[in-house]
Design a protein that fits this description.
Length: 328
């Protein structure tokens, strides 16, 4: 059978592996010790934070159908939050998500969906691919930091953030130039754990006119621990300007901004942590939703090919898998 290497065990990489496994030998390489990419969860006993993607929606029939078995197994559930929009420190609108289209989360943590998707797949965790060498005639070799050969493959698909994908692909591939044009934006995630709940009458907020863009009570999501956990995202613009700033300075700045926006004293936070996402978001993109170099048997996919959404990560993989099936 054709041997395919998929680099990245986020939603895109796992979907590709699921779709292609019946037709090829597929191995997934993931540099971290867990699945999910930006479908990420941080455990900080007794607190828990979804410090990447906060929720996802299903606007396409394909993604809705994909989610349905996970909903039936209660791995995915609606998050019917009381949602507000805050502008310049004032609440300008309110609505309950129960009254509109479903906003989903994985349970009991956001990366639980990726863990379930990984079942039965050949996934190599803590396996960082640093080079792809070879040719279409001789096949591709994957090498790690120690120059150890991780395997030989007929096809290689990169399912990682755009800049990392461009740096990893061989110079001979025509995919590098278009990928280098993809401009993914950074984001900071601030995680705060409290013994006592703050007096907020909402669970999720979109913020305008500030250096933070999102605040949510993660402990209000289905299946989460009861310990009060606030997750705050910076704006992409502020993160880009300060992406290499000192962590302590960033934390202090975002804490001050949060206190101002929600008009609450947050000094009682028992747990305070920060995560830097260098590649967190991207605007809507034109094109097929994937990149393919048939001559060299190389491909790339990810939400950055469509839009910075979980559904986009799935659709990019699905479209690429359908196209690759014609080549296998």
């Amino acid at each position: 059978m054709t041997r395919i290497a998929v680099i990245g065990a986020g939603i895109t990489g796992l979907t590709l592996a699921q779709e292609l496994a019946p037709l090829a030998e597929v191995a997934v390489f993931e540099k971290s010790r867990g699945y999910g990419g930006r479908m990420a969860t941080r455990q900080a006993d007794p607190y828990q934070f979804d410090h990447g993607a906060q929720f996802f929606t299903a606007k396409s029939e394909a993604f809705a159908a994909f989610l349905q078995p996970f909903i039936e197994r209660r791995c995915v559930a609606r998050w019917d939050a009381n949602f507000v929009e805050i502008d310049a420190g004032s609440i300008v609108s309110r609505r309950c998500w129960a009254d509109g289209p479903a906003h989903y989360v994985a349970t009991p943590c956001m990366n639980a969906l990726a863990k379930q998707m990984s079942a039965g797949l050949d996934i190599r965790l803590a396996s960082r691919v640093t080079r792809i060498v070879g040719s279409v005639a001789d096949g591709w070799q994957l090498l790690d930091q120690q120059h150890t050969v991780l395997g030989h493959y007929d096809w290689v698909v990169v399912a990682i953030p755009a800049r990392q994908a461009a740096e990893l692909l061989p110079a001979s591939s025509r995919l590098r130039a278009p990928i280098e044009q993809k401009d993914m934006l950074g984001c900071y995630s601030l995680m705060l754990g409290f013994r006592q709940e703050l007096a907020l009458d909402w669970q999720a907020a979109f913020v305008s006119g500030a250096d933070i863009s999102w605040v949510s009570n993660d402990s209000s999501k289905p299946g989460r621990p009861d310990y009060y956990s606030l997750l705050v995202h910076s704006t992409n613009l502020w993160a880009e300007k300060n992406i290499d700033a000192d962590d302590e300075w960033v934390t202090t700045r975002l804490c001050a901004e949060l206190a101002r926006v929600i008009d609450r004293d947050i000094s009682a936070a028992e747990h305070v942590a920060l995560h830097r996402w260098r590649y967190a978001n991207i605007g809507r993109q034109a094109g097929e939703g994937f990149l393919l170099d048939c001559d060299n048997r190389l491909a790339a996919a990810g939400d950055w090919c469509i839009h910075g959404r979980i559904e986009s990560a799935y659709l990019s993989a699905l479209r690429l898998a359908q196209r690759l099936q014609l080549e296998l």
